[in-house]
Amino acid sequence: MRVNRRTFIKIGGVAAGAAAVGIPLAAQHAGGGRVLALDPGTDGDEVVPTFCEMCFWKCGVLAHVRQGRVTKIVGNPEHPLSRGRLCPRGTGGPGLLYDPDRLKKPLIRRDKRGTQVFEEVSWDEALDHVAERLGSIKNKYGPEALAVFTHGFGGSWFNKLAAAYGTRNTGAPGYAQCRGSRDVAWELTYGCPVGSPEATDIENARVLTLIGSHLGENMHNTQVQELARAIDKGAELVVVDPRFSVAAGKARYWLPIKPGTDIALLLAWMHVIVGEKLYDRDYVDKYAVGFDKLAEHLVDKTPEWAAVETGIQAGTIVETARFIAGARPASLVHPGRRAAWYGNDTQRGRAIAILDALLGAWGRKGGFYLPAAMSVPAYPGIPEPTYKPKDPVDMPLGTVFPFADEGLAHGLRDASLPGAKVAYLLKAWFVYGTNLPMALPEPKKTIEALKALDFVVSVDVLPTEITGWADVVLPEATYLERFDDLHVAPFKPSYTALRQPVVEPMYDSKPGWWIARELAKRLGLGDYFPFEHVEDYLEKRLSLMGSSLDDIRVKGVLTAPKQPIYIEEGVVPDIATPSKKIELFSQQLADAGLDPLPTYTRPDAGPPGSFRLLTGRTPTQTFSRTTNNRFLARVYDTNDVWVNAGRARELGLANGDLVVLVNQDGARTAPLPLRATERIRPDCVFMVHGYGHTSKGLKFARGRGACDTDVCTKTRIDPVMGGTAVNVNFVRIERVSA
Amino acid sequence: MTKRYAMVVDTRKCVGCKACALACAAENNVPQGFMRSWVVEETRGVFPELRQQFLSERCNQCSEAACVEVCPTGASHFAEGGVVLVDHNKCTGCKACIASCPYDARYVHPAGYVDKCTFCLHRVQAGKEPACVEVCPTRSLHFGDRNDPESEVSVLLRTRKSKVLHPEAGTEPNVFFLE
């Protein structure tokens, strides 16, 4: 049955029922009749389930719609990720939907790039123009001259378009700039990535160890819910962080480590755990290879040696190692998420992975669970792309970086620079939902590439910096106004979730699936999008799994029956490494000429008197994507730079002073407020990424705070998978004269 | 027995994410520039010997509410469960209540009346939890009837150490913070 897009299922009763948790209704005010409190009127006439895109965790939400307007968004109790609860960003969805600065019409550039002179045009004109330019790029240079950058769930349509067009040059900054190194570390060790949502069984952990991961500020809803539940159940935290993070504030042990020395600590912990035979010997014997080589490697990695490197006392290292091992296997050393720090990040990820194996945590309750995804067949009949690739030269799969298994966004950029030493230059960019000038380090290179390209297209919701450099800007409908593909996630329990429009698209914005399909048709690639409407596509996929669009629309999610997820429940781990074992010693790395066991190298010191720049997250923002959201800004409207209070005093700086950061290369940030705090070591400063917009179109965010990317002029590249580490920049602080 | 609504905030679990503050603003259509709920960060000590707490704060719905006492028009009044409400029609915006409140919990709504947290009484009367309690990802916020010894808030207050803000003000607050 075809479902009309406008007939949303009304489930107000479901939402209210789920929220009622034992508050008795028999509320008679003593001494008289009951007076009902004034209702602010934000409950919806309709409540539409969908899933969030305010970050990339994809929580299920219920959008309340009253007289055609989204009044509020709450957590969907039926969805395994949100469990009826949301982070602040999820609540802030209407701030994006009703952002007055949204892109409203397709735009075509009428002057040179960077001048931001656009003309509003019709969709037909814009799409015809893009198709004509992409067609001629393909004819002139071949399809692989097009790079496609995506970030966010809607990017799937444009990756399909890229495949159809014939380019493999696709990349998301989320790989090399964020989670890639830890996923590769896991693949090398366990044969599978950590994935997202991470299969970390935080709620059942007895000891949770965080290495620089600032859970609680890095606000992945389910993980934070589980952290709180674990605390409730008496779990203890070991937090390794140069900054007294929120998690550190809840920890039994906070180790304020010298930045960049984590591998030394991890090796010393393992030295103690192996030396004192505190590891899970049965588990290691059964599932792992390379233990003897590891043990030999650890012999001289003593706590005394690590103390000198890390600044953590040897006694504390021994004590925490015993503490961590004492809770195994429910002792979870979290693999982290944004891990591109020092250039040795895959090796740090490996050290964490090996430690987790020694604890017997992988596949065990309170460690990592082993979920299986629901089987949701692909839409049938979509042709296989017929690549005729040239020699890949932009550092993609298996060339310069042997274990890079996704495209490297900065590699694509560097292969677009005039004079780049590559077999062929990239000539055009198609950019979906990622603000490359702020997301990629070495920002000057990004601008240089953008100036040199033949053609740039941007699909976005807001007039971010990248849209200012595009030749054609296509305004996408927000996640609250569109369908996307199904989200099929292995989890506990595994589920399939639907994104569906809550309201009709505002202005002249269009959903991503429609934009990609219209472009495909114009490029003669309509076969790759063989459906009239995305609802037909979704209906087909759902019918192949024995469900329907009507079915999934009611709750927004289909949940798999409970399944065994731990070894102790009978799961036999399928370890997809070459040895079919957990590879403590990595023959794959050895064969590639890389360290088969993690080794420690002392990090470079910065110029005298300078601070190492560290960056991180705040619960209310997702990078530069949300900082124009006026609703979220109610609680956090600018970033600030954290400086150790003692150091600030020495420098004559006070809380709230407006300062500029100047890095080792003379690059400068915009002014931002200084936060003098005891919560950070004296040798580093910290700021939240995402502020410091310069785009004129972002009328709210422009000029608020500063962008760390401006002083990330240096990167160190991870030799294993090509990640771009940015914690290698040093800054000094200049006060802005009033 | 008369109800006595109360909120219990578990600072051990709270991560200070401010979802409570924003869910409140959305639920109650709080105008831009004002908040009915907010989060206070408290850090004590000197690096590296530090302690930290986040306090999710709002109107304390005091049993001895100074605002009700000073209100010249009777706009500020005790409603069901002891919740302090402001009758918009009776409020003249004189701000006596704002001056009397030790918690800075009130503001003048652009429409001219004084506004503040209502414990989401409109939701509670419909059998739901306050918006801040419902959204909280860490389940740090608990709401219920203090006069019911079996209620979650009563059990928490009996079994855990708690404090109120500004006890010296003598206002008998009904928002409690677990240590």
What do these coordinates show?
- The complex is a heterodimer of chains A (738) and B (179).
- Chain A has 4 domains: 1-26 and 37-98 and 478-510 and 530-559, N-terminal domain of TfIIb, CATH 2.20.25; 104-172 and 407-476 and 511-528, 3-Layer(aba) Sandwich (Rossmann fold); 180-369, Dimethylsulfoxide Reductase, domain 2 (3-Layer(aba) Sandwich), CATH 3.40.228; 611-735, Beta Barrel (Barwin-like endoglucanases), CATH 2.40.40.
- Chain A is of the alpha/beta class and 738 residues long.
- The termini of chain A are far apart.
- In chain A, helix 5 links the parallel strand 6 and strand 7 (170-171).
- The model of chain A is unreliable at 1-32 and 394-398 (pLDDT under 50).
- Chain B has 179 residues and is an alpha+beta fold.
- Chain B has helices at residues 19-27, 66-70, 96-100, 121-124, 131-135, 152-159, and strands spanning 5-10, 38-46, 49-57, 76-78, 84-86, 107-108, 114-115, 141-145, 162-163, 175-178.
- The mean pLDDT of chain B is 97.
- The chains are: A alpha/beta (738), B alpha+beta (179).
- At the A-B interface, strand 3, helix 2 and helix 7 of A face helix 1, strand 2, strand 3, helix 4 and helix 5 of B.
Write the layout of secondary structure elements.
The complex is a heterodimer of chains A (738) and B (179).
Chain A: H1 12-19, E1 46-51, E2 60-66, E3 69-75, H2 88-91, H3 93-97, E4 107-109, E5 118-120, H4 123-141, E6 146-150, H5 155-165, E7 170-171, H6 173-190, E8 207-211, H7 221-232, E9 236-240, E10 253-255, H8 262-275, H9 281-287, E11 288-289, H10 291-298, H11 303-310, H12 314-326, E12 331-334, H13 345-358, H14 409-414, E13 428-432, H15 436-439, H16 443-452, E14 455-460, H17 465-468, E15 472-475, E16 487-489, E17 495-497, H18 512-522, H19 534-544, H20 549-555, E18 557-559, E19 582-583, H21 587-591, E20 611-616, E21 641-644, H22 645-650, E22 658-663, E23 672-677, E24 684-688, E25 716-717, E26 724-725, E27 730-735
Parallel strand pairs in A: 6-7, 6-13, 8-9, 8-12, 9-10, 11-19, 13-14, 14-15, 20-24, 21-23
Antiparallel strand pairs in A: 1-2, 2-3, 4-5, 4-15, 16-17, 17-18, 20-27, 21-24, 22-23, 22-27, 25-26
Helix pairs in contact in A: 4-18, 5-18, 6-13, 8-11, 8-12, 8-13, 11-12
Chain B: E1 5-10, H1 19-27, E2 38-46, E3 49-57, H2 66-70, E4 76-78, E5 84-86, H3 96-100, E6 107-108, E7 114-115, H4 121-124, H5 131-135, E8 141-145, H6 152-159, E9 162-163, E10 175-178
Parallel strand pairs in B: 1-10
Antiparallel strand pairs in B: 1-8, 2-3, 4-5, 6-7, 9-10
